[in-house]
Amino acid sequence: MENISNKVAFITGGGSGLGFAMAKSLSEAGIKVMIADIEERALEAAKNFFSEKKLEVETTLVDVTDRNSLEKAATKTEEIFGNIHILCNNAGVGINGNIRNLTYQDWDWVMGVNLNGVINGIQTFTKRIIRHGEGGHIVNTSSMAGLIGIKGLSIYNTAKYAVVGMSESLVQDLKTHNIGVSVLCPGFVNTRIYASERNRPSSLNQEVPKKDNPDKMKKKGDQQAISDEVLQNVIEPEIIGEMVLEAIKKNKFWILSHPEFKNLLTYRTEIISQSFDAWREFLTRSDKDG
Ligand SMILES: NC(=O)c1ccc[n+]([C@@H]2O[C@H](COP(=O)([O-])OP(=O)(O)OC[C@H]3O[C@@H](n4cnc5c(N)ncnc54)[C@H](O)[C@@H]3O)[C@@H](O)[C@H]2O)c1
């Protein structure tokens, strides 16, 4: 989207962390922003922050796992600002733990927010953006964990890989409607993701065996393939906010904020490529045997 001035953005999980930083960057660039979040206190703080700065930002209480609440928030946003052009599907929660300790409640909560939340955002907003015909852009927040499997992150990996796959498909589907798509895959960013349980609904809160402590895991580097250097590079959310703005303006698909992961990803791709060769050899051999 070359011309972003006066466009309207809807940012889920915009009350804190990456979403809040996106709201800052986008509103400072002249975009009207609706911040949607489940955390009332964060919304109140955000409202005060942006009204002091006299930026066009509104807030609304939303649970991305609740389709009706998203639908109502979309209508409210259109009533306040008019047509919505930009959707940042960013709300997310983190959970660490070996698969042996994880429960159905853990799966339901994390998949509910990190994957169903994105699906609900796409379903609620894409048709609205197509309908007004003015074009738009969708930014889905995945993670480096959407590209690399990490020990102790099975649920998070599952959701974030799905978000990458969905985005790779959507970018093709939406091209003809003049809607760009980006997928954001950060490494570690200095946010409150490690306190995600603060937003866990009581219905999915069960007394469960203690999970691995995420901070401890992070320091310990509980993924042999990930070096300490990679784990220690924690960046500030404001950098991500600026990268998201750039991706929207220049229609860039991949938003990759942590270049130190490149080697690991290249290694993964090479292993897959080598496996093709090994299996091709097997197939040839089987043919001969048969
Ligand atoms: N911080 C990191 O290191 C990192 C790395 C890669 C990806 N991410 C992703 O970035 C996104 C933002 O996370 P963050 O790091 O800013 O964490 P954060 O906890 O600071 O912010 C997440 C926001 O999402 C909101 N939220 C949680 N559940 C919600 C729900 N059901 N409905 C609506 N809002 C809800 C929270 O209230 C919070 O404001 C997430 O998708 C996360 O998976 C974070």
Question: Could you walk me through the main structural features you see in this protein, from its secondary elements to its overall organization?
Answer:
The chain is built from nine helices and seven strands, in the order E-H-E-H-E-H-E-H-E-H-E-H-H-H-E-H. By secondary structure, it is of the alpha/beta class. The protein has two domains: 8-257, Rossmann fold (3-Layer(aba) Sandwich); 263-290. It has a seven-stranded parallel beta sheet with strand order 3-2-1-4-5-6-7, with helices on both faces. The structure holds nicotinamide-adenine-dinucleotide. Nicotinamide-adenine-dinucleotide binds at residues 12-13, 15-19, 37-39, 42, 62-65, 90-93, 113, 141, 143, 186, 188-189, 191-193, 196, 199. Residues 12-13, 15-19, 37-39, 42, 62-65, 90-93, 113, 141, 143, 186, 188-189, 191-193, 196, 199 line the site of nicotinamide-adenine-dinucleotide.
